[in-house]
């Protein structure tokens, strides 16, 4: 089973598309999915030049027993 890393990091559902914040309809369509083998240390959305999506940067740690 895979889980949404941003949710595991305690982030609320955050829109990632479209980048224009004036639009009425926005949604989070960008995700990093992880298995139980990983711990999510942090997750945050960033602006990307010349893109209609916001990037998702996630810091992961592989559990020692999974190595």
Give the SSE map.
Blueprint: E1 3-4, H1 5-8, E2 33-34, E3 38-46, E4 55-62
Antiparallel strand pairs: 1-2, 3-4
Q: Which residue ranges are poorly predicted, with pLDDT under 50 across at least 5 consecutive positions? A: none
Report the order of strands and helices. EHEEE
Strand order of the largest sheet: 1-2
Mean pLDDT: 90
Output the radius of gyration. 14 Å
| Strand percent estimate | 25-35%
* Biggest sheet statistics: 2 strands, antiparallel
**Which term fits the overall shape?**
elongated
How many DSSP H or I helices? 1
Classify the helix fraction into a percent range: under 10%
End-to-end separation in angstroms reads: 18 Å
- Structural class of the helices, strands and pairings? mainly beta
The oligomeric state is: single chain
Give a count of the beta strands, DSSP E runs of length 2 or more: 4
Describe it for me?
- The protein is mainly beta.
- The chain is built from 1 helix and 4 strands, in the order E-H-E-E-E.
- The protein has one helix spanning 5-8; strands at 3-4, 33-34, 38-46, 55-62.
- A two-stranded antiparallel ribbon has the order 1-2. Strands 3-4 form a two-stranded antiparallel sheet.
- A hairpin with an 8-residue loop joins strand 3 and strand 4 (55-62).
- The longest helix has 4 residues, at 5-8.
- It is elongated and about 45 Å long.
């Amino acid at each position: 089973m895979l889980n949404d890393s941003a949710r595991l990091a305690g982030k609320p559902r955050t829109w990632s598309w479209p980048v224009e914040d004036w639009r009425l309809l926005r949604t989070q369509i960008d995700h990093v999915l992880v298995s139980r083998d990983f711990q999510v240390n942090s997750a945050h959305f960033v602006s990307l030049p010349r893109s209609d999506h916001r990037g998702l940067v996630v810091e992961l740690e592989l559990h020692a027993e999974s190595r």
